[in-house]
Specification:
Length: about 140
């Protein structure tokens, strides 16, 4: 009699667990986005006029980094953070205290283009080297 009760209880718990999987809230896992075919160009004059380096009053050069983003998730990714390293012609890290460089508001499924504005101190030699660029984001908007 007692064993029969335990078996029924066990089956009820199992059936409830299986049934609840169909009603579970969506999991918004972080999605990695590959960034490639990177290049950069000078900003238009309207954007670069009066540019200063972050945290100082040193004059700065403004660049637009562009490339392609590959979103493998099949869903639109929102607020994808862009990470990467930028080096000058002497292999010095241009932004030593930053690896997060900006964000992409929306990355549709598949391949798309992106652009990012960077300002670097004007005394650093070019050409710049863009390395280890990647992005990550969520399929839902992140709200705080």
């Amino acid at each position: 009699m007692r064993r029969d009760r335990l078996v029924r209880l066990f089956l009820a718990v199992c059936l409830t667990a299986i049934a609840s999987w169909g009603f579970a809230a969506p999991a918004w896992a972080i999605t990695q986005i590959k960034l490639y075919d990177l290049s950069y160009r000078d900003c238009p004059t309207a954007l670069s006029e009066g540019a200063v380096a972050s945290g100082s009053i040193m004059s700065a050069n403004c660049f637009i980094v562009s490339g392609k983003a590959k979103n493998p998730s099949g869903k639109t990714i929102y607020d994808a953070d862009i990470y990467g390293r930028v080096y000058d012609a002497n292999n010095n890290n241009v932004l030593p205290n930053r690896t997060r460089l900006g964000k992409i508001d929306e990355v549709p499924p598949g391949e798309s283009n992106f652009e990012l504005q960077l300002t670097v101190p004007s005394n650093l030699p070019t050409p710049l080297k863009l390395e280890q660029f990647k992005a990550s984001g969520f399929t839902g908007r992140v709200r705080f």
